[in-house]
Amino acid sequence: MANGPKHLEALGELNGLFPSVGTKIVQFQDKKDFNALNLTDKEWESVMPRGGGFVFGPDDTNSDSSYDLPRPIRSKGKDVYNIAIFHQLHCLHALAEEFKGLITTIEAGRPGDGVGSDRIEHIQHCLAYLKESLVCCGDTAYEGQSSITDLPSTSGFGSYHVCRNFQQIFTLSEDRRVTNMAGYGQGGHSHGS
């Protein structure tokens, strides 16, 4: 690694290219009106900024090796990067989309069309990527007994977590967006290999 900032913010950007957003205490709530399988639900829409979290990289990425960055996405002659949280949400949304498709097929009692290799690749990528993301974040909040059952279990709801200020991340990403794309951009999407 070349020249990272003197102080690294937990879960922040290594090079200091994304401003510090601070933290806030959040009590996880089971939002009964949120249907994770309704892919147009307002809750899904409310966490994906216009532009899908794609932002322009620093102007001098190609000529200056002082940043520790992966190879940029090139778009319209510019270096573009995706803010990780929005890639993570894209993957979670894609998994919900696939799961909903399977449920719909099963409930209709019809044979499925099968899952194409490109979709399987995307699902495998998303599962591996989300596993890495969760391990990286390492949320250590204590979670207690589930309110749904008396059996020893936890739903995770009701516990307090120290979270990064998501609204600031959302706003900063939207302010720096590359395009005005709305939604999760699933159609024809490929991460490559």
Automatic annotation (TrEMBL):
Keywords carried by this UniProt record: Glycoprotein, Membrane, Oxidoreductase, Transmembrane, Transmembrane helix, Virulence
GO MF term set: oxidoreductase activity
GO BP terms in the entry: mycotoxin biosynthetic process
UniProt membrane topology term: Single-pass membrane protein
Stated name of the protein: Uncharacterized protein
Cellular compartments per GO CC: membrane
Pathway: Mycotoxin biosynthesis
InterPro entries: UstYa-like (IPR021765)
Domain of life of the native organism: Eukaryota
Subcellular location: Membrane
Pfam families hit by this protein: UstYa
KW Repeat (keyword) present: no
Native source organism of the sequence: Gnomoniopsis smithogilvyi
Family the UniProt entry places it in: Belongs to the ustYa family.
